[in-house]
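@channel sequence for tomorrow's demo:
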Amino acid sequence: MLKDLDVSQARFIALLANTARTQRDALLGNVAEKDLVGPTPARGERNPTVELGIEPLPADAFQPAAALCEAINWLSEPARRELYALMRIGQGDLAAKKWHHGLSEAELLGDNAITAAISDDPDLHDHVTKGLYEAKLAA
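C-alpha cells (generated this afternoon):
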C-alpha cells in the first residue's frame, strides 16, 4: 500500500503532531477554541490569547509545530500524498480499500493544499494512527 512513505515516517509525524497539540493545549490552558473567540475590537490588539495573558514562546524554545511542518515538507511529494490519504482514512472519510481514491484526491488538490491540510489538522496524531490501523499497517 505505502510506496513512498515509510510507516516509521508516518509514526514520527504523528508523534510530532501529538507533541505540538500538547504544547498548544498547555499554552492555551486547555481552553476550548470557541471560548477564545470574542467580539473583534475596533482598534488595537486582535489576538484572542492576549486576554488570557499568554506570552509567546521564547525564540530558543523547542517548537514542535515548526518541527512538524519541517518534517512534512521534508517528505517527497508522493509521500505527502500517501500521508494525506492515511489522514483521510483516519478521519473516516475514506475506506482503506479505496486507497487509490485518496491518492487521486491528493493529486487533484495539489501539493500546497495537501501540505496545508495535513499541518493544519489539530488531530493529526489520532488520524494518522487510526489510518495506519485501518490500513493494517500498525504493528
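heads up for whoever presents: Helices lie at 7-27, 33-36, 64-74, 77-91, 99-109, 111-120, 124-134.
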